[in-house]
Amino acid sequence: MTMHTLTPPPAPIVLIVFNRPDHTAKVVEALAANNLASESSLYVYSDAPRNERDQAGVQGVRTYLRSIKGFKSIHLIERPTNVGCTRNVLSAVTETLEHHDRCIVVEDDIQTAPQFLTYMNQALTHYKDAPGLCSIGAYTHPFTMPGTYTHDLFVCQRHCSWGWGTWKAVWSRLMDDLTIMDKGMADPTMRRAFASTCGEDLLRTYKRVPQIWDLRVTYKAWTLGLYTLYPKASLVRNIGKDGSGTHYNGAALHSVDDIPFPEGLPAFGPLPEPDEAVINAFLKPTHKPLWRQLAIALTKAIGLYDPLLRYANSKG
């Protein structure tokens, strides 16, 4: 008797949008070009304007979204009032997982490779029962991988917010009391341990925007000892490093987005063990020497930081 393994239908896609019609269109077009798009349900969560300046952008996004095609089904959720980035993301994922056992999450500045949905669905299926894993990531910033590392994938306790997926069971664990971070950040020992494991830039982020969702999800995953799986070669690009985003200003990590997408998919085998050399290399860009922190503070104080950042981004 031949046994057949049933392949689950593609995971639903959760798309988070706000007030950037041009970015949203590029993201949707890239998703629709994926092989599995026509088999995937798309749930779009559109936040409402914060003020009059946002109204035209939000309306432009919503008008565009009503015209899109190429997916199995399209569900447009238009927030009647502004809930903010964090609540929009967290509630969108939670609501979607009330009806599905897994989902894929993309924000309005994450342009995907043609094989992104295939990668995400295969990984979510292959590693659904892997102990210690809380999510599948698709973005990997450029870094020097240790030559001795031979796997196509690696793990780190830092959550990937630029194209990712998760499962219903683990998401409920992550959402159980995200306020624990505030207590942890008051403890110098906990701060140092968190920074060394997940990235020093997250401490700076906590000072600027302590409520941002991916920071708190990373912290909760860290306390639970859970990891995110990353590909060696990134399967998404961030196209929002032009200053148009709510929180990201283009300065975090290495936002080099002109590197070609890989042609194939990574090999899915047993879940890789955490590799200290790989994790250290991956997190190295999150460290800012004191001189650089002072230079940034000085250029911000005299009004040069944003112009210099825009100039640097225009040069790629």
Please explain how this structure is put together:
- Helix 2 links the parallel strand 2 and strand 3.
- The chain has an eight-stranded mixed sheet with strand order 3-2-1-4-8-6-9-7, sandwiched between helices.
- Helix 1 packs parallel to helix 2.
- With 316 residues, the chain is of the alpha/beta class.
- The radius of gyration is 19 Å and the shape is globular.
- The N and C termini lie far apart (58 Å).
- 40% of the residues lie in helices and 15% in strands.
- The protein has one domain: Spore Coat Polysaccharide Biosynthesis Protein SpsA, Chain A (Alpha-Beta Complex).
- The protein contains twelve helices and ten strands.
Task: Outline the low-pLDDT stretches.
Answer: 249-256
Query: Which architecture per CATH?
Result: Alpha-Beta Complex
How many domains? The number is 1
* Terminal-residue CA separation: 58 Å
User: Tell me, what's the shape?
Assistant: globular
The number of helices is 12
- Tell me the name of the CATH homologous superfamily: Spore Coat Polysaccharide Biosynthesis Protein SpsA, Chain A
Q: Could you please say which CATH topology applies here?
A: Spore Coat Polysaccharide Biosynthesis Protein SpsA, Chain A
Helix content: 25-40%
Which band does the percent of strand residues land in?
Answer: 5-15%
Given the helix and strand composition, which structural class is it?
alpha/beta
Question: How many strands appear in the DSSP assignment?
Answer: 10
What do the pLDDT scores average to? 90
Instruction: Please outline the major beta sheet.
Output: 8 strands, mixed
Structural Rg? 19 Å
* Order of the strands making up the biggest sheet: 3-2-1-4-8-6-9-7
Question: What is the string of SSEs from the N terminus onward?
Answer: EHEHEHEEHEEEHHHHHEEHHH
Q: In the CATH hierarchy, what is the class?
A: Alpha Beta
